[in-house]
Amino acid sequence: MGENATSSAEAAPAVAELDPPNRTLMGPGPSDVHPRVLRAMSTPLVGHLDPSFVELMDEVQDLLRYTFRTDNEWTIPVSGTGSAAMEAAFGNLVEPGDTVLVPSNGYFGDRMASMARRAGGDVVTVDAPWGEPLDPADVESALAAHDPDVFGFVHAETSTGVLQPDVPVLTEAAHDHDAFVVADTVTSLGGVELRVDDWNVDVAYAGPQKCLSCPPGASPLTLSDEAMAKVLDRETDPRSWYLDLSLLEGYWGDERAYHHTAPITNVYALREALRLVAEEGIEARWERHERLASALKAGVEAMGLAMNAPDAYWLPSLNAVCVPEGVDDGAICDAVLEGYDLEIAGGLGDLAGEIFRIGCMGHAARPENVVLTVTALGDALAEAGADVDTDAGVRAVRESLR
Description:
By secondary structure, the protein is α/β, with parallel strands linked by helices. It has 13 helices and 14 strands. It comes from Halovivax cerinus.
């Protein structure tokens, strides 16, 4: 190297000012963030043991209890994305040698299985086709056959657009076999009816970036007293120190003892997102999601497209729309992104190439976004040669919203 040369280690990289595109997020998540939540994230930082932050922690826990519809003491935001809350649930509740029954009817049931195995559990499955819910009779048979210690189910399967009905029937059957129940509520919390206590769910976890319209980083988790007792009575420590709930209890419980530096700004954001839930009212929020998603559903059907999930288990917060024959779903997603700054997504796993996944979540669940989505999707499909009637779709949306 010459005398005047500058090494890459010495030269500062030239990086432009941050300027992300202004998208409308109608995919499977994240969803559009409410302006109040963005403002909350710009407020001054304090220490994670500052008295003002400790007071805020109490408020976040109370708001989470309201949103989960639970009185559980052990209700916290886990520092991390929704997958961190999921791993905290399975990594703490499942001990080596425990039998864990999980569903096979979607991408996130498969993730449950993976996490339970990593925790040392012996995984067995209750089967259903992708795009269908679990049949309570099949769950009962699997419970009788395997006598599991833990039963997990996905309340709102993001990969298929299916809402699991009959939740109290499933939890009662599991408890009859002395199994703890873990519910994946990532795409249902704050968007569709969820009643943790009334439905006797032992553990539920979620992500803030879906129906709560909050950036990822602090993810809701709630455990019943009985579930937390199992966690605290473990014979071996969980494999993750960071997600060990017996240690996190010292920070989020009465002691407020140091465990790790909490993502303070993300907790600010979650608090404001939950304040918006409380101001709207949880049942009114469920109704809004159903009303706006019904308009979206009416629009895509009037346009000539079919929904993947029948009405009996249609998931308002994540709409699975069948891809017309001969259409490349990826090309359509690219077209609406490029032409309308609108994000939707294609299918995963067994449904890859077969469905569009269109969210209707949180702050994004607004009339103008539904009209935009039907318009953009219809135009892109028509350009690709599909037999669709975009105008009829938009008319149906507007009629539904009257």
